[in-house]
């Protein structure tokens, strides 16, 4: 998802689907939205089609990410070079904001800004429209855990997970599973490891908003004990994952193994709810805390995953702003976000609740105040995708051992020292 390619000339433009306006001979405006959540592509295009008809504005949705061989950051660079930047595009945090800040419009006067506490802000000004609230930990199949006599409430540290994984592995035939964990660490799935899993090193067990570990690593200082415990956790997940899915699997194969009850745990977030619904996965499920520490933790990782920003150079900036405003203010927009896309809304005026089991689990953790930050996006795309992701991939395919994983990670962070 964040794998920048070296040469723009090698880029292949992704296909954008244009939503046409039936029965309209003249279109006064056109807007393009580029986003990085392919799992909501179908629902977003359907909403865009309805909004187009109502507003007589042609909308093109471009979705980049998932298992594709190009990420949104790379695509945006190509669009910029071609003089074809979208009117609305997604950023994931301060690093991508800094890259595009010269063309990002100030949205502080937007009505929706007063209805969310997680808007993307810089120096007190609102620049980013939070797409949703998302959470991840380890999703579990409660039915399979019950058959194995394992209470998910006990899974809150490394030792507890180790014992559970060993027991489940010994019951593979009885449970009908291929692996204990559905985990992906292949070349095209670096966002699973170097974005989401990496964040466990940065924030697990810390107060929400605590960036002490993040800032230390950004300054080249490594907590050897914390990194060692984290490496134990990565090793444990890799050991009990299906090797084919782990090393070469894509998003669909990873999520599919869990949906088809061929794995007890899934390393993903509540954004997979639509995929699970399509697969008719009706078993009981939820999220358990992460086991990357020896000490117990009691929470999952929750934040706004990305933000829509408006291109200040757009010829149709008014229409672009209205497209976002209507997503929050209208019944159709709210239905799209919560019911169609299965997202947890980031806006307090939206009273709908998602029906997906994992999204409901996230809401339970949020309501209890048991959440940890997302700090991975304080690191550059290049560092995550080009430096960290290959280290995870080597560890997953067995070309390096845990000691080498630790040494390579340490060297990567020390290289950041100014």
Short summary:
With 418 residues, this protein is α/β, with parallel strands linked by helices. It contains 17 helices and 14 strands.
Write structural notes for this entry:
This protein is α/β, with parallel strands linked by helices and 418 residues long. It has 2 domains: 8-133 and 304-348, Periplasmic binding protein-like II (D-Maltodextrin-Binding Protein, domain 2, 3-Layer(aba) Sandwich); 135-302 and 372-414, Periplasmic binding protein-like II (D-Maltodextrin-Binding Protein, domain 2), CATH 3.40.190.10. Helices cover 42% and strands 14% of the residues. The protein has 17 helices and 14 strands. It has helices spanning 41-55, 72-81, 94-100, 142-147, 158-169, 172-175, 190-203, 212-218, 224-239, 243-248, 251-259, 273-278, 317-329, 331-340, 357-367, 381-397, 402-414; strands at residues 17-19, 29-35, 57-63, 88-91, 120-122, 125-130, 134-136, 138-141, 179-182, 263-266, 285-288, 300-303, 307-310, 371-372. The strands form 3 sheets. Strands 1-3-2-4-13-6-5 form a 7-stranded mixed β-sheet, sandwiched between helices. It has a 4-stranded mixed β-sheet with strand order 9-10-8-11. Strands 7-12-14 form a 3-stranded mixed β-sheet, sandwiched between helices. Strand 5 (120-122) and strand 6 form a beta hairpin. Residues 1-25 have low confidence and may be disordered.
The unreliable regions are 1-25
CATH class annotation of the largest domain: Alpha Beta
Q: CATH superfamily of the largest domain, please?
A: Periplasmic binding protein-like II
Distance between the termini: 27 Å
- Large-scale geometry: globular
CATH structural architecture of the largest domain: 3-Layer(aba) Sandwich
Question: Might you state the CATH topology name of the largest domain?
Answer: D-Maltodextrin-Binding Protein, domain 2
Q: Care to count the β-strands?
A: 14
Any idea how many domains? 2
Largest sheet: 7 strands, mixed
